[in-house]
Amino acid sequence: MAPRMTIDRARAAIVAALLVIAAIAYWTLRPGETAKPGQGAPQPAAQNAASLDSVDLSDSQLAVVKVEPVAEREFPVEKDAVGSIDFNEDMTVQVFTPYQGRIIALFAEVGDDVSKGQTLFTVDSPDLLQAESTLIAAAGVLDLYTKNLARLRDLYTTQAVSQRDVEQAASDEQTAEGNLQAARDAVRLFGKADADIDDIVAKRIADSTLVVPSPITGRITARNGAPGLFVQPGNAPAPYTVADIATMWMLANVAEADSPAFHAGQQVQVKVNAFPGRTFDGKITTVGATVDPNTRTVLVRSEVSDPQHELRSDMFANFVISVGAPVRSPAIPVDGVVREGDGTMTAWVTADRRHFTQRTVMIGEERDGYRQILGGVQVGELVATDGALYLSNTLAAAAPP
Protein backbone atom coordinates (compact mmCIF):
# COMPACT_ATOMS: atom_id res chain seq x y z
CA MET A 1 0.00 0.00 0.00
CA ALA A 2 2.85 2.40 0.84
CA PRO A 3 4.52 2.17 -2.58
CA ARG A 4 1.20 3.10 -4.33
CA MET A 5 0.78 6.25 -2.17
CA THR A 6 4.31 7.34 -3.05
CA ILE A 7 3.55 7.08 -6.79
CA ASP A 8 0.35 9.18 -6.44
CA ARG A 9 2.22 11.91 -4.60
CA ALA A 10 4.86 12.00 -7.33
CA ARG A 11 2.20 12.39 -10.03
CA ALA A 12 0.53 15.23 -8.11
CA ALA A 13 3.84 17.05 -7.78
CA ILE A 14 4.49 16.74 -11.52
CA VAL A 15 1.02 18.12 -12.40
CA ALA A 16 1.50 21.10 -10.03
CA ALA A 17 4.88 21.86 -11.58
CA LEU A 18 3.36 21.81 -15.08
CA LEU A 19 0.59 24.25 -14.04
CA VAL A 20 3.15 26.68 -12.60
CA ILE A 21 5.20 26.55 -15.82
CA ALA A 22 2.08 27.16 -17.95
CA ALA A 23 1.05 30.16 -15.84
CA ILE A 24 4.52 31.71 -16.10
CA ALA A 25 4.54 31.21 -19.86
CA TYR A 26 1.09 32.81 -20.24
CA TRP A 27 1.91 35.94 -18.30
CA THR A 28 5.30 36.29 -19.96
CA LEU A 29 4.19 35.83 -23.54
CA ARG A 30 0.78 37.60 -23.37
CA PRO A 31 0.59 40.03 -26.42
CA GLY A 32 0.41 43.78 -25.80
CA GLU A 33 1.55 43.53 -22.15
CA THR A 34 3.85 46.38 -21.23
CA ALA A 35 6.88 45.82 -19.11
CA LYS A 36 6.76 46.37 -15.37
CA PRO A 37 9.79 47.39 -13.37
CA GLY A 38 12.15 44.45 -13.17
CA GLN A 39 10.56 42.57 -16.11
CA GLY A 40 12.60 42.38 -19.30
CA ALA A 41 10.46 40.22 -21.60
CA PRO A 42 7.78 42.88 -22.55
CA GLN A 43 10.30 45.54 -23.68
CA PRO A 44 10.13 44.68 -27.42
CA ALA A 45 6.32 45.22 -27.36
CA ALA A 46 6.78 48.68 -25.81
CA GLN A 47 9.33 49.61 -28.42
CA ASN A 48 6.93 48.55 -31.18
CA ALA A 49 4.13 50.72 -29.70
CA ALA A 50 6.47 53.72 -29.61
CA SER A 51 7.21 53.30 -33.32
CA LEU A 52 3.55 53.44 -34.34
CA ASP A 53 3.68 57.27 -34.58
CA SER A 54 7.26 57.74 -35.74
CA VAL A 55 9.09 57.51 -39.06
CA ASP A 56 12.84 57.36 -39.74
CA LEU A 57 13.84 58.57 -43.21
CA SER A 58 16.79 57.57 -45.32
CA ASP A 59 18.99 60.09 -47.07
CA SER A 60 17.07 59.72 -50.33
CA GLN A 61 13.72 60.17 -48.56
CA LEU A 62 14.89 63.34 -46.81
CA ALA A 63 15.04 65.06 -50.19
CA VAL A 64 11.23 65.27 -50.36
CA VAL A 65 10.79 66.71 -46.88
CA LYS A 66 11.34 70.33 -45.90
CA VAL A 67 11.78 71.26 -42.25
CA GLU A 68 11.07 74.68 -40.72
CA PRO A 69 10.79 75.95 -37.15
CA VAL A 70 7.39 76.89 -35.80
CA ALA A 71 7.12 80.70 -35.70
CA GLU A 72 4.55 83.16 -34.38
CA ARG A 73 2.33 85.08 -36.78
CA GLU A 74 -0.57 87.50 -36.39
CA PHE A 75 -4.03 86.18 -37.10
CA PRO A 76 -6.98 88.60 -37.26
CA VAL A 77 -10.09 87.83 -35.25
CA GLU A 78 -12.68 87.66 -38.01
CA LYS A 79 -16.18 86.47 -38.72
CA ASP A 80 -17.45 85.55 -42.14
CA ALA A 81 -20.79 84.85 -43.75
CA VAL A 82 -22.29 84.24 -47.16
CA GLY A 83 -25.01 86.20 -48.87
CA SER A 84 -26.09 87.77 -52.12
CA ILE A 85 -25.82 91.14 -53.84
CA ASP A 86 -28.93 93.28 -54.26
CA PHE A 87 -29.76 96.79 -55.42
CA ASN A 88 -29.63 99.56 -52.86
CA GLU A 89 -33.33 99.97 -52.23
CA ASP A 90 -32.72 103.31 -50.50
CA MET A 91 -31.48 104.57 -53.88
CA THR A 92 -34.00 102.75 -56.08
CA VAL A 93 -36.87 104.75 -57.61
CA GLN A 94 -40.03 103.56 -59.31
CA VAL A 95 -40.80 106.04 -62.08
CA PHE A 96 -44.54 106.66 -62.47
CA THR A 97 -46.31 109.11 -64.73
CA PRO A 98 -47.38 112.23 -62.80
CA TYR A 99 -50.67 112.34 -64.75
CA GLN A 100 -52.77 109.72 -66.45
CA GLY A 101 -52.58 109.02 -70.15
CA ARG A 102 -51.39 106.55 -72.74
CA ILE A 103 -47.71 105.86 -73.33
CA ILE A 104 -46.51 107.22 -76.66
CA ALA A 105 -42.91 105.95 -76.73
CA LEU A 106 -40.22 104.51 -74.46
CA PHE A 107 -36.55 105.46 -74.73
CA ALA A 108 -34.62 103.07 -72.43
CA GLU A 109 -34.16 99.34 -72.01
CA VAL A 110 -33.39 97.21 -68.96
CA GLY A 111 -29.69 97.48 -68.16
CA ASP A 112 -29.25 100.92 -69.74
CA ASP A 113 -27.42 103.55 -67.72
CA VAL A 114 -29.36 106.83 -67.62
CA SER A 115 -28.65 110.31 -66.32
CA LYS A 116 -30.85 112.46 -64.14
CA GLY A 117 -33.32 114.33 -66.37
CA GLN A 118 -32.93 111.94 -69.31
CA THR A 119 -36.25 111.11 -70.99
CA LEU A 120 -37.54 107.63 -70.13
CA PHE A 121 -40.98 107.71 -71.79
CA THR A 122 -43.65 110.07 -73.09
CA VAL A 123 -47.37 110.09 -72.36
CA ASP A 124 -50.31 111.53 -74.30
CA SER A 125 -51.82 113.44 -71.39
CA PRO A 126 -55.26 115.08 -71.61
CA ASP A 127 -54.50 116.89 -68.35
CA LEU A 128 -51.45 118.53 -69.91
CA LEU A 129 -53.50 119.46 -72.95
CA GLN A 130 -56.13 121.09 -70.73
CA ALA A 131 -53.48 123.00 -68.74
CA GLU A 132 -51.81 124.31 -71.90
CA SER A 133 -55.18 125.33 -73.37
CA THR A 134 -55.95 127.25 -70.19
CA LEU A 135 -52.53 128.91 -70.44
CA ILE A 136 -53.15 130.01 -74.02
CA ALA A 137 -56.58 131.35 -73.11
CA ALA A 138 -55.24 133.22 -70.10
CA ALA A 139 -52.50 134.76 -72.21
CA GLY A 140 -55.11 135.89 -74.76
CA VAL A 141 -57.33 137.43 -72.08
CA LEU A 142 -54.41 139.31 -70.57
CA ASP A 143 -53.44 140.63 -73.99
CA LEU A 144 -57.01 141.83 -74.55
CA TYR A 145 -57.28 143.54 -71.17
CA THR A 146 -53.87 145.16 -71.59
CA LYS A 147 -54.85 146.69 -74.91
CA ASN A 148 -58.24 147.79 -73.53
CA LEU A 149 -56.57 149.52 -70.58
CA ALA A 150 -54.19 151.34 -72.89
CA ARG A 151 -57.08 152.54 -75.09
CA LEU A 152 -59.14 153.75 -72.14
CA ARG A 153 -56.20 155.67 -70.75
CA ASP A 154 -55.83 157.46 -74.09
CA LEU A 155 -59.53 158.30 -74.09
CA TYR A 156 -59.39 159.49 -70.51
CA THR A 157 -56.89 162.18 -71.47
CA THR A 158 -59.59 163.72 -73.68
CA GLN A 159 -62.30 163.14 -71.07
CA ALA A 160 -64.02 160.65 -73.41
CA VAL A 161 -64.35 158.07 -70.64
CA SER A 162 -64.69 158.33 -66.91
CA GLN A 163 -62.00 157.57 -64.37
CA ARG A 164 -64.16 154.73 -63.11
CA ASP A 165 -63.91 152.99 -66.50
CA VAL A 166 -60.13 153.27 -66.43
CA GLU A 167 -59.91 151.85 -62.91
CA GLN A 168 -62.16 148.95 -63.87
CA ALA A 169 -59.95 148.16 -66.88
CA ALA A 170 -56.85 148.26 -64.67
CA SER A 171 -58.50 145.82 -62.25
CA ASP A 172 -59.42 143.49 -65.10
CA GLU A 173 -55.84 143.56 -66.34
CA GLN A 174 -54.49 142.66 -62.89
CA THR A 175 -56.96 139.77 -62.66
CA ALA A 176 -55.86 138.53 -66.09
CA GLU A 177 -52.21 138.71 -65.03
CA GLY A 178 -52.99 136.58 -61.98
CA ASN A 179 -54.86 134.03 -64.09
CA LEU A 180 -51.97 133.84 -66.54
CA GLN A 181 -49.47 133.29 -63.74
CA ALA A 182 -51.64 130.53 -62.29
CA ALA A 183 -51.88 128.93 -65.74
CA ARG A 184 -48.11 129.08 -66.15
CA ASP A 185 -47.63 127.41 -62.75
CA ALA A 186 -50.11 124.68 -63.70
CA VAL A 187 -48.16 123.89 -66.86
CA ARG A 188 -44.87 124.05 -64.96
CA LEU A 189 -46.11 121.16 -62.77
CA PHE A 190 -45.93 118.95 -65.87
CA GLY A 191 -42.19 119.50 -66.08
CA LYS A 192 -42.25 122.34 -68.58
CA ALA A 193 -39.52 124.95 -68.29
CA ASP A 194 -40.20 128.70 -68.57
CA ALA A 195 -38.76 128.70 -72.07
CA ASP A 196 -41.20 125.95 -73.08
CA ILE A 197 -44.10 127.89 -71.55
CA ASP A 198 -43.10 131.07 -73.38
CA ASP A 199 -42.96 129.10 -76.62
CA ILE A 200 -46.47 127.72 -76.06
CA VAL A 201 -47.80 131.22 -75.41
CA ALA A 202 -46.01 132.71 -78.41
CA LYS A 203 -47.08 130.01 -80.87
CA ARG A 204 -50.52 129.49 -79.36
CA ILE A 205 -50.08 125.71 -79.87
CA ALA A 206 -50.92 123.14 -77.15
CA ASP A 207 -48.95 119.88 -77.10
CA SER A 208 -50.33 116.96 -75.06
CA THR A 209 -47.00 115.09 -75.02
CA LEU A 210 -45.92 114.69 -71.41
CA VAL A 211 -42.22 113.91 -71.01
CA VAL A 212 -41.31 111.70 -68.00
CA PRO A 213 -37.59 111.98 -67.15
CA SER A 214 -35.38 109.89 -64.88
CA PRO A 215 -35.34 111.38 -61.37
CA ILE A 216 -31.83 110.06 -60.62
CA THR A 217 -28.68 108.90 -62.36
CA GLY A 218 -28.55 105.13 -62.37
CA ARG A 219 -29.38 101.95 -64.24
CA ILE A 220 -32.71 100.69 -65.54
CA THR A 221 -33.53 97.63 -63.45
CA ALA A 222 -37.11 97.02 -64.62
CA ARG A 223 -39.33 98.07 -67.53
CA ASN A 224 -43.06 97.35 -67.47
CA GLY A 225 -44.36 99.95 -69.89
CA ALA A 226 -45.26 99.59 -73.56
CA PRO A 227 -46.54 101.97 -76.23
CA GLY A 228 -50.31 102.41 -75.97
CA LEU A 229 -50.48 101.28 -72.34
CA PHE A 230 -52.78 103.46 -70.23
CA VAL A 231 -50.94 104.51 -67.07
CA GLN A 232 -52.00 106.37 -63.96
CA PRO A 233 -50.00 107.94 -61.12
CA GLY A 234 -49.03 105.35 -58.48
CA ASN A 235 -50.62 102.37 -60.24
CA ALA A 236 -48.23 99.40 -60.03
CA PRO A 237 -46.24 98.22 -61.77
CA ALA A 238 -44.29 101.35 -62.53
CA PRO A 239 -43.32 101.76 -66.21
CA TYR A 240 -39.64 101.99 -65.15
CA THR A 241 -37.49 101.32 -62.11
CA VAL A 242 -34.13 103.09 -61.82
CA ALA A 243 -31.45 102.24 -59.25
CA ASP A 244 -28.39 104.23 -58.28
CA ILE A 245 -25.69 101.54 -58.58
CA ALA A 246 -22.80 103.54 -57.13
CA THR A 247 -23.49 101.45 -54.03
CA MET A 248 -25.05 98.00 -53.75
CA TRP A 249 -26.42 95.97 -50.88
CA MET A 250 -25.15 92.63 -49.67
CA LEU A 251 -27.72 90.64 -47.71
CA ALA A 252 -26.38 87.86 -45.49
CA ASN A 253 -27.86 85.58 -42.86
CA VAL A 254 -25.46 84.99 -39.97
CA ALA A 255 -25.76 82.38 -37.26
CA GLU A 256 -27.59 83.45 -34.16
CA ALA A 257 -24.53 82.69 -32.03
CA ASP A 258 -22.37 85.02 -34.16
CA SER A 259 -24.83 87.92 -34.32
CA PRO A 260 -23.53 89.78 -31.20
CA ALA A 261 -20.21 90.32 -33.05
CA PHE A 262 -21.86 92.42 -35.79
CA HIS A 263 -22.71 96.11 -35.43
CA ALA A 264 -23.80 98.88 -37.77
CA GLY A 265 -20.84 100.84 -39.08
CA GLN A 266 -18.32 97.99 -39.06
CA GLN A 267 -16.13 97.82 -42.17
CA VAL A 268 -16.49 94.67 -44.29
CA GLN A 269 -14.59 93.13 -47.18
CA VAL A 270 -16.82 91.52 -49.78
CA LYS A 271 -15.79 88.93 -52.35
CA VAL A 272 -17.88 87.60 -55.23
CA ASN A 273 -17.32 84.53 -57.36
CA ALA A 274 -17.52 86.59 -60.55
CA PHE A 275 -14.35 88.49 -59.64
CA PRO A 276 -11.87 86.07 -58.06
CA GLY A 277 -9.10 87.78 -56.19
CA ARG A 278 -11.03 91.08 -56.01
CA THR A 279 -12.29 92.67 -52.80
CA PHE A 280 -15.06 95.27 -52.54
CA ASP A 281 -15.15 97.55 -49.51
CA GLY A 282 -18.31 98.21 -47.59
CA LYS A 283 -19.84 98.69 -44.18
CA ILE A 284 -22.67 97.17 -42.22
CA THR A 285 -25.75 99.40 -42.25
CA THR A 286 -28.37 97.21 -40.58
CA VAL A 287 -28.41 94.24 -38.22
CA GLY A 288 -31.78 92.54 -38.07
CA ALA A 289 -33.86 92.99 -34.94
CA THR A 290 -35.31 89.47 -35.05
CA VAL A 291 -34.06 85.90 -35.42
CA ASP A 292 -35.53 83.68 -38.13
CA PRO A 293 -37.27 80.93 -36.14
CA ASN A 294 -36.69 78.36 -38.89
CA THR A 295 -33.00 78.88 -39.63
CA ARG A 296 -31.92 80.57 -36.36
CA THR A 297 -30.13 83.27 -38.32
CA VAL A 298 -30.07 87.07 -38.25
CA LEU A 299 -30.16 89.29 -41.35
CA VAL A 300 -27.11 91.54 -41.78
CA ARG A 301 -27.22 94.16 -44.52
CA SER A 302 -24.07 95.84 -45.81
CA GLU A 303 -23.64 98.74 -48.20
CA VAL A 304 -20.93 97.94 -50.74
CA SER A 305 -19.10 100.53 -52.82
CA ASP A 306 -19.21 99.77 -56.56
CA PRO A 307 -17.85 102.82 -58.43
CA GLN A 308 -17.19 100.81 -61.61
CA HIS A 309 -20.73 99.38 -61.66
CA GLU A 310 -19.46 95.80 -61.81
CA LEU A 311 -21.72 94.09 -59.30
CA ARG A 312 -25.04 92.58 -60.35
CA SER A 313 -28.11 91.83 -58.32
CA ASP A 314 -28.32 88.24 -56.95
CA MET A 315 -24.58 87.59 -57.33
CA PHE A 316 -23.38 85.09 -54.72
CA ALA A 317 -21.03 86.79 -52.26
CA ASN A 318 -19.31 86.37 -48.93
CA PHE A 319 -17.88 88.90 -46.54
CA VAL A 320 -15.27 88.99 -43.81
CA ILE A 321 -15.29 91.42 -40.91
CA SER A 322 -12.71 92.00 -38.20
CA VAL A 323 -14.36 91.78 -34.79
CA GLY A 324 -11.27 92.13 -32.60
CA ALA A 325 -7.60 92.94 -32.42
CA PRO A 326 -5.24 90.45 -34.17
CA VAL A 327 -3.71 87.72 -31.99
CA ARG A 328 -0.23 86.18 -32.23
CA SER A 329 -0.15 82.39 -32.37
CA PRO A 330 2.20 79.60 -33.47
CA ALA A 331 1.82 78.98 -37.19
CA ILE A 332 2.71 76.22 -39.63
CA PRO A 333 2.54 76.44 -43.43
CA VAL A 334 -0.68 74.96 -44.73
CA ASP A 335 1.13 72.00 -46.32
CA GLY A 336 2.61 71.10 -42.94
CA VAL A 337 -0.79 70.17 -41.46
CA VAL A 338 -2.35 66.87 -42.56
CA ARG A 339 -5.95 65.81 -42.13
CA GLU A 340 -5.92 62.13 -41.20
CA GLY A 341 -8.53 59.56 -42.10
CA ASP A 342 -10.28 59.88 -38.75
CA GLY A 343 -10.59 63.66 -39.16
CA THR A 344 -7.81 64.66 -36.77
CA MET A 345 -5.22 67.21 -37.81
CA THR A 346 -1.57 66.25 -37.38
CA ALA A 347 1.92 67.72 -37.80
CA TRP A 348 5.30 65.98 -37.96
CA VAL A 349 7.84 67.10 -35.37
CA THR A 350 11.58 66.34 -35.48
CA ALA A 351 14.62 67.13 -33.39
CA ASP A 352 17.39 65.76 -35.63
CA ARG A 353 15.75 66.28 -39.08
CA ARG A 354 15.72 62.51 -39.64
CA HIS A 355 13.47 60.98 -36.99
CA PHE A 356 9.93 62.40 -37.29
CA THR A 357 7.11 61.97 -34.78
CA GLN A 358 3.46 62.46 -35.61
CA ARG A 359 1.62 64.82 -33.26
CA THR A 360 -2.03 65.79 -33.10
CA VAL A 361 -2.60 69.55 -33.30
CA MET A 362 -5.52 71.92 -32.84
CA ILE A 363 -5.89 74.37 -35.72
CA GLY A 364 -7.45 77.82 -36.02
CA GLU A 365 -7.66 80.30 -38.87
CA GLU A 366 -5.80 80.20 -42.19
CA ARG A 367 -4.03 83.36 -43.33
CA ASP A 368 -1.55 84.03 -46.14
CA GLY A 369 -0.66 80.35 -46.55
CA TYR A 370 -0.20 79.65 -42.84
CA ARG A 371 -2.41 77.69 -40.45
CA GLN A 372 -2.92 78.95 -36.92
CA ILE A 373 -1.97 76.34 -34.29
CA LEU A 374 -3.93 76.48 -31.04
CA GLY A 375 -2.24 73.48 -29.43
CA GLY A 376 0.06 70.53 -30.08
CA VAL A 377 3.34 72.23 -30.99
CA GLN A 378 5.35 75.10 -29.54
CA VAL A 379 7.20 78.02 -31.09
CA GLY A 380 10.72 76.97 -32.11
CA GLU A 381 10.00 73.26 -32.62
CA LEU A 382 11.04 71.85 -35.98
CA VAL A 383 8.19 70.57 -38.12
CA ALA A 384 7.91 69.13 -41.60
CA THR A 385 6.27 71.55 -44.02
CA ASP A 386 6.65 70.22 -47.57
CA GLY A 387 6.40 66.44 -47.40
CA ALA A 388 4.17 66.16 -44.33
CA LEU A 389 1.63 64.20 -46.35
CA TYR A 390 4.44 61.93 -47.57
CA LEU A 391 5.34 61.14 -43.95
CA SER A 392 1.71 60.29 -43.11
CA ASN A 393 1.49 57.98 -46.13
CA THR A 394 4.80 56.32 -45.18
CA LEU A 395 3.55 55.68 -41.65
CA ALA A 396 0.27 54.25 -42.96
CA ALA A 397 2.12 51.94 -45.35
CA ALA A 398 4.32 50.60 -42.54
CA ALA A 399 1.39 49.87 -40.22
CA PRO A 400 0.59 46.14 -39.75
CA PRO A 401 -2.53 44.93 -41.55
Textual characterization of the structure:
With 401 residues, the chain is of the alpha+beta class. The protein has 4 domains: 2-49, no CATH class; 51-75 and 327-398, Beta Barrel (conserved putative lor/sdh protein from methanococcus maripaludis s2 fold), CATH 2.40.420.20; 81-89 and 243-325, Elongation Factor Tu (Ef-tu), domain 3; 95-241, OB fold (Dihydrolipoamide Acetyltransferase, E2P). It is 30% helix and 34% strand. The chain is built from 7 helices and 22 strands. The chain has helices at 2-29, 43-50, 59-62, 126-157, 163-188, 194-203, 388-398; strands spanning 54-56, 67-69, 71-87, 92-95, 101-106, 113-114, 119-124, 209-213, 218-223, 230-231, 240-243, 247-255, 267-272, 280-287, 297-305, 316-333, 338-339, 345-350, 355-360, 362-367, 370-375, 382-384. The strands form 4 sheets. Strands 1, 2, 17, 18, 19 and 22 form a 6-stranded antiparallel β-sheet that branches. Strands 3-12-15-14-13-16 form a 6-stranded antiparallel β-barrel. It has a 4-stranded antiparallel β-sheet with strand order 4-11-9-6, with no helix packed on it. Helix 4 (126-157) runs antiparallel to helix 5 (163-188). The protein is rod-shaped and about 170 Å long. The model is unreliable at 1-6 and 25-50 (pLDDT under 50).
